[in-house]
Write a structure and sequence with these properties.
The chain has 276 residues and is of the alpha/beta class. It is 35% helix and 20% strand. InterPro entries: DNA_methylase_N6_adenine_CS (IPR002052), HemK-like (IPR004556), Methyltranfer_dom (IPR025714), N5-glutamine_MTase (IPR050320), PrmC_N (IPR040758), RF_methyltr_PrmC (IPR019874), SAM-dependent_MTases_sf (IPR029063).
């Protein structure tokens, strides 16, 4: 019977900075143990059924399937989220959106909107950090809305609700949000990166936004003032080179205090503005 150490040593994955970590996550999941167990007990023998699952999951990863889809979950902020192939996988860079939102408003009652909520990661991170906020997450895909609601239920966050809506389509006449936040599609349709890495397996509708990647951002910026309270904020994640264009769109629509914030890699990753 193979040991934890021997299985990890023999694991062959595509060369990448996360290859070793990917193998550890997959083996820990097969064993039903935390990753720390592998380092504590490397000499432990692995049951045959666990070894078989590990081998099957390694094969999926070798074909390029993201670890998050194989495991069915992904960490974001301080929480863990169920994920599925019809949702975008939450990424560390998006935590900047959460961090900035928490800085903009005090921890007092407020209504917050998350557009294109996906797994609900942004909405639920905000709901977790600000129990006084009422957070609404919308997504155009019904099964995605159901997944986000399951995440809310599992995390026991009752100050977040989710509904089906194509951006603001189900919110007509509702102008009461203190903050609107979104990580919309922003990759140009012909960007070669769409054929590389994990994004090959993610839903294209959550990634692509027209020839320049700004179609959805334009739509959100155009409609947001009708759903914001006076002095309310709009926060948008975008591509690493799109900040000047997004700031220009915000200014053109009449937003004030327009600015951008940099991610851990030094790129201007989000832009924001306030409704007068």
């Amino acid at each position: 019977m193979a040991t934890i150490e021997s299985l990890l040593r023999a694991a062959v994955l595509p060369d990448s900075p996360s290859a070793k970590l990917d193998a550890e996550w997959l083996l820990a999941a097969a064993l039903g143990k935390p990753a720390s167990y592998l380092r504590t007990w490397p000499e432990r023998e692995v049951p045959a059924e666990c070894e078989a699952r590990f081998a099957a999951d390694l094969a999926r990863r070798r074909r390029g399937e993201p670890v998050a889809y194989i495991l069915g979950y992904q960490g974001f902020w301080s929480l863990e989220f169920e994920v599925a192939p019809h949702t975008l996988i939450p990424r560390p860079d998006t935590e900047l959106l959460v961090e900035t939102a928490l800085q903009l408003l005090p921890p007092i009652p407020a209504d917050i909107l998350d557009l294109g909520t996906g797994t609900g990661a942004i909405a639920l991170a905000l709901a977790h950090e600000r129990p006084a906020w009422q957070v609404t997450g919308v997504d155009r895909v019904a099964e995605t809305v159901e997944l986000a609601a399951r995440n809310a239920q599992r995390l026991r966050l009752d100050n977040a609700v989710f509904c089906e809506s194509r951006w603001f389509s189900a919110l007509d006449g509702q102008r009461f949000f203190s903050l609107i936040v979104s990580n919309p599609p922003y990759i140009p349709a012909h960007d070669p990166h769409l054929q590389e890495g994990d994004v090959r397996f993610e839903p294209s509708s959550a990634l692509m936004a027209g020839d320049d990647g700004l179609d959805d951002i334009r739509q959100i910026i155009a409609s947001a003032p009708s759903h914001l309270l006076d002095q309310g904020w709009l926060l948008l994640e975008h591509g690493y080179d799109q900040a000047p264009a997004v700031r220009a769109l915000l200014v053109e629509r009449g937003f004030i205090e327009v600015q951008s914030r940099r991610d851990f890699g030094g790129h201007e990753r989000i832009s924001l503005g306030r409704r007068p």
